[in-house]
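Aim 2 progress update. The chain analyzed this quarter is reproduced below.
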Amino acid sequence: MSAGTTPVRLRPLESRDFDRVLELERELFGPGAWTYGMLADELAGLGRWYVVAEATDVLHGFGRHPVVGYAGLWFDGDDAQVMTIGTARSHQHRGVGRTLLQALVDRARALRAGALFLEVAVDNAHALALYEQFGFVRLGIRKRYYQPEDKDAFTMRMDLRAAAAFDDAAPGTSDRTADRTADHASDGTASAARSVPPGSTGQRSTGQRSTGQGDAA
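Predicted structure tokens:
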């Protein structure tokens, strides 16, 4: 483990985590933060998979490790969508965001999704760099996607079938290469990423989000 990296343990997001996750939502997304009801509805949705990242090098009250990040995925039976991903500002530039993103990619592969989609603000250079290192490509721009911020977003796609074929040809190469290159760039999943579910009406900020301070891998 490199210097400056936060050791984390991932586990399922539970109702006892709501207060902390909503605190991070307000810190990272401001006016676009999810409410308690929105978070509860999202976790109850079909095909959802959410995790939190606990910093294992710190203990809080009652011997608990603090939650320093969270992420979620939606699988519709064919493809997967990154719904949200965020890292506490106090733990950005420490690899937490990259660990969360890798977990979402691994989960999508385990579900045999054909592709993994996400949206990211067009001005989030750090997040864009990280996603491209993982193999995501830009498909287009969604105008005024993030509300109430009124920001445009890139839609990005990772072809999981192509990635799996590459892994079969050169076992272990793909993920390790992504990890090494990310060591030299900011991990833009720092603050968050969010995507409105396909078919959703309106630009409700219940989709994938990624802030751009960068969470160094």
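The chain is about 30% helix and 25% strand. Residues 172-191, 197-207, 211-217 have pLDDT under 50 and may be disordered. These observations will guide the mutagenesis experiments scheduled for the next reporting period.
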